[in-house]
Amino acid sequence: MEGKLINPQFTTWDKAYCIGHEKIDSEHKKLFDIANEINDCKEDEEKVIEIVKELIKYTKFHFKNEENFMKSIGFPKLAEHKKLHAKLVKKLGDIVKNITYQPIYLTIIQLSDLVNKNILQHILIEDKKVHYALKTRDELKERFIWKMEYQLRNELLDKEHEKLFDIAIESLNYHNTDIRTHVKITIKELYEYMKTHFKHEEEFMEEIGYPELEAHKKLHEDIIEHMNKFLKSLPKLDITEFEKRLIEYMDIWLINHILYDDRKIINFLKY
Description:
Blueprint: H1 2-6, H2 22-36, H3 45-72, H4 78-98, H5 104-133, H6 137-143, H7 155-171, H8 179-208, H9 213-233, H10 239-269
Helix pairs in contact: 2-3, 3-4, 3-5, 4-5, 5-10, 7-8, 8-9, 9-10
């Protein structure tokens, strides 16, 4: 793990990070492409500074475009989203302010953490919410599928992640049965299988000596807690709200966990 800190790599853009809006996805990809240029010139301080400045300029450009888009569709949480953008821009600005007062490798570490963690999770969670606000219930259900891009290339984890989605999708297929009874049974099955999967994943992390095991366990506990709250809210939800909430939960929060937190486990095995 020490090697990762000394020689951080910027995450390359992946199709799995797409939110489903061509222009926004292309700008997200460009942002990551700019950051990735640092991977090839870490010893050239002037070049790194040049790329960092370009990254800030492009990030501001992209955020402005994104905010204009949200305004055009009447996104109700535009003000909150703008604040999140402002925080990211400030963090980038702080990195630039310190760039001449510290070794360049520290700047690269700070920048890679910001891109690989903060900006990526902003895309996977906050930007996906904007995309979801545009979709009808039927459109969301049609697009709610397990995708090959979500695979981690680990047989156990991929198989269990896919099964989680299979159970969630089954909960949306009522088969002319009593809807509320069907939902109650399948969501309970999803909840129990999620706990089983997390137990298996934690055993796997312990087996390989994964150093962030305890932090990852806490993430699992948080996901289970949120799922438990969702279960308790079921009697108060109409079917349309239930469907939208379940799809959002699985396709935003769980996919973010897989693409960000679980991928860290696989990346650990590569070093």
